[in-house]
């Protein structure tokens, strides 16, 4: 099974099983990782904001305009920021590393 790593706010790295077809948000919830996801993946908030490790960012599909609009509202926005609900696990993403931002802001929704 593919794996991915969440880097928690305190720097702790947690490698978890990452079933194909699940979003990063769903994988986080399955393993008790502290990502809110207030709108449950409907692109109406930015609370599932994650910062993708730069070495992985280029392997992701480009964000949609709707995702970019929501990211504009995210707290602690970085160059490699994405919404966890929009990142779907594939074989190509086996080993993906994402960091949790310093905090979240529930704007919208």
UniProtKB/TrEMBL annotation:
Pfam families: Fer2
Keyword annotations from UniProtKB, A to Z: 2Fe-2S, Iron, Iron-sulfur, Metal-binding
Entry annotated with the keyword Ion transport: no
Domain of life: Bacteria
All residue ranges annotated as the 2Fe-2S ferredoxin-type domain in the record: 2-104
Cofactor entry: [2Fe-2S] cluster
Family: Belongs to the adrenodoxin/putidaredoxin family.
The protein's name: Ferredoxin family 2Fe-2S iron-sulfur cluster binding protein
Source organism: Siccirubricoccus soli
